[in-house]
Amino acid sequence: MNPFRALFSSLIVISLTFTNVTCFRPDPRVGQASILVGSNLYFFGGNTYNPRIFTKPNGDKLSYYYNDSNIFDTKTMRWSTLTLTNTPLSRVSYSAVLKGNLIFYIGGDSDSGSTFNINEILVFDTVNLKWLFKTTRGDPIGSRSRHSAVLTQGGLILIYGGAGPNGTQVQPDLATLDVSVTPYTWKVIIIDNAPPPLMYHSATLHGIYMIIAFGNYNALN
């Protein structure tokens, strides 16, 4: 057997052995994001849509949307769920970025299929465990879901791509959100040789570069 393949198989066995979780677990879901704060992973929202499982007898999609907040402790390997007041509406396919002790949730779709107004930002305080609701000003930015967001070295939230209401192309493709001022402020970023607009991609910050990987072209382009 290939030594690397044998080592890889051993690592899989070890991982499955030592990361088994037997306590409370939230329902399985898609369309949510996770943010690591210290040793805790914070999860919000998502839905259960799976075309292989959640389908009505007549063929229609059957999906349940969530607005719960769950935490996975990577040290104890245990889940917990938060009981909070002023909880926001169910949301999927949003972006989430951590700055300090605050998680910023941008865009996304509701359980009715509508796209949330991108000028209304959800913020979760991981110290006081409460939701904050913020508004924005600045350049006009099209509402979207299925986009990406990263935190730049300068402390700005940089969003890219996604799909607008009913799958339309978003405008602009690239923008920054300054959350150090009140109200938060959007700014359109115009660059040469921009890649085609993508959705369902991944984005990672490396130094001064945002690296975009994979994804789909907007079907309505």
UniProtKB/TrEMBL annotation:
InterPro entries: Kelch-typ_b-propeller. SUPFAM superfamilies: Kelch motif. Residues 1-23 form the signal peptide. The keyword Amino-acid biosynthesis does not apply. It comes from Gigaspora rosea. The lineage of its organism: Eukaryota, Fungi, Fungi incertae sedis, Mucoromycota, Glomeromycotina. The keyword Methyltransferase does not apply. This is Galactose oxidase. Keywords: Kelch repeat, Repeat, Signal.
